[in-house]
Amino acid sequence: MKRDVLSIRDLSRTELHKVVDQAIHLKALRNAGTDHALPRKNTLGMIFEKASTRTRISFEVGMFELGGHALFLNPNDMQLGRGEEVRDTARVLSRYLSLIMIRSYRHETAVELAKYADIPVINGLSDREHPCQILADIMTMKEEFKTTEGLRVAYIGDSNNVCNSLLLAAPMAGYELAVASPDGFQPKEEILHEADRAGVRYEVYTSPEEAASGADVIYTDTWVSMGSEGEHDKRLRAFAGFTVDKALMQKAADHAKVMHCLPAHRGEEISGAVMDGPSSLIWNQAENRLHAQKALIMMLL
């Protein structure tokens, strides 16, 4: 039976840990120069409504290293861009491909694609969630701390799709999450209700210092996501005081590490000194997108 991963909650706790452990294993194989191609050649269709650096490159390289092929699909170059319905595209792509990854503006687009596709569909990012990013994040934390159980993670900034997936993954990974966002930019009620039902241990603050207190990990993301560029100046004013800098890091545990899913804007959500400093896990985190997605692909196939 085909599986889709549109939300991090589409994975069970056991599956999430299996994917992360497999990703760590695949990383070791790659670093050792050991071939790990799948026995069957598979094809991945990658639909990009939104621009991408890490998602495109990591999925494309990942499929190549697994012995398959990835196709970059721009909706403007497809009949989708001329009004073909998502369900019709899903049915056609199912006849050609092994699985689909979509990076969409609206989460509902990914849901509809998965509903009508006969092959697995992966959410490469939507306005609601970013499950692939969070798999890489959990992998990164496990590499650094040996376990994610009992960690205190502080998310500082805009409660966006990354924050949503980080929140919903918490009970499966075993960390607690403290979110600090200005009024008007905190997690939506529907996400908090889902988090409550899932038994997430979380706190929501308007003070970055309170959220960062005693944290093992400080996580941040851009204040101006794709689609909200028209609010740039308004958002910069709203998030004044939410920069992850050396002063904020001093509120965290002495061993605290900093994470950012990129792209970053030095001097806004994070200072250059912290981003490029010894506490940064950001580049490991970016690399781990490749390994985590390969492990996810292997599970779905």
Explain how this protein is built:
The termini are close together. The mean pLDDT is 96. This protein is α/β, with parallel strands linked by helices. Helix 2 (54-65) packs across helix 12. The strands form 2 sheets. It has a 5-stranded parallel β-sheet with strand order 7-6-5-8-9. It has a 4-stranded parallel β-sheet with strand order 2-1-3-4, with helices on both faces. The protein folds into 2 domains: 8-130 and 289-300, Rossmann fold (3-Layer(aba) Sandwich); 133-286, Rossmann fold. Strand 5, helix 6 and strand 6 (176-180) form a beta-alpha-beta unit. The chain is built from 12 helices and 9 strands.
Q: What is the N-to-C order of secondary-structure elements (H for helix, E for strand)? A: HEHEHEHEHEHEHEHEHHEHH
Helix content: 40-55%
Question: In the CATH scheme, what's the topology name of the largest domain?
Answer: Rossmann fold
User: Measured on Cα atoms, how large is the radius of gyration?
Assistant: 19 Å
Q: What is the strand content? A: 5-15%
Give the uncertain stretches in residue-range form.
none
CATH superfamily of the largest domain: Aspartate/ornithine carbamoyltransferase
- Give the termini separation: 10 Å
Per CATH, the class of the largest domain reads Alpha Beta
Q: What is the correct CATH architecture of the largest domain?
A: 3-Layer(aba) Sandwich
Total domain units: 2
Q: Compute the number of strand runs.
A: 9
